[in-house]
Amino acid sequence: MSGFMEMWDQMGFLAKAIVFVLGIMSVWSISVMIERYLKFYAARKQSREFAPAVSEALKTGNIREAIELAEQHEKSHLAKVVVAGLQEFQAHEGSSAIPGEIVEASRRALQRATAIGIEELKRGLGGLATIGATAPFVGLLGTTVGIINAFLGMAAGESVGLAAVAPGIAEALVATAFGLFVAIPAVWMYNYFTSKMESFIVEMDNSSSELIDYFLKRRAEKHGD
């Protein structure tokens, strides 16, 4: 620890500024990782509870109960999509609208809810990708500054030995290591969250398709009666 503090004291202003920027990037990326992980975990957990429960409600034709279930699972990505379609369908079911228009209105509501859900899932991931891509270059900038300081130390010193260039080299290595330390977890977690998000999108699309099929079947049964 004392060696690190000595190294920090020997760093120039620009090198310290670069390390400080990398520190901010690291803190921000870690906060996004934690927030997104909790968000995705809650969405997965509540969706697993919601899917079978809403399926049972719809089998009995109880749309109101299905809507209440969706509202109780507000963190579920499936519930956010399903409730939009159910509310739209219920709002027009008792009206004199053409059956096809009711289903089409529900389809549009499902599409809007899916688009909003995707944007919610993507929140913060763009910044995580940017940090993963740029942190090594920020570290490289610090490396360049450290090497420049090493040559300046060599030029200013009477000796050209290791002692003259060691502080600058250490400064360069710290910046490089810190840049990689920030970038690698950001890239890993970005890929992880992207994979999870793609899975959620498929689930939302499948739920929308199944709900439209349910609406068509319900309207056909009602029209047949």
* Separate helix tally: 7
Principal-axis shape: rod-shaped
Task: Give the CA-CA distance, first to last residue.
Answer: 81 Å
Order of helices and strands: HHHHHHH
Cα-based radius of gyration, to the nearest Å: 28 Å
Query: Tell me about the biggest sheet?
Result: none
Structural class estimated from helices and strands: mainly alpha
Q: In what range is the share of β-strand residues?
A: under 5%
Mean pLDDT across residues: 83
Number of domains: 1
Weakly predicted, low-confidence segments:
none
Q: How many beta strands in the DSSP annotation?
A: 0
The residue fraction in helices comes out at over 70%
Q: What would your notes on this structure say?
A:
The chain has one domain (2-219). With 225 residues, the protein is mostly helical. 90% of the residues lie in helices and 0% in strands. The longest helix is centred in the last third of the chain and has 63 residues, at 162-224. The model has no long low-confidence stretch (mean pLDDT 83).
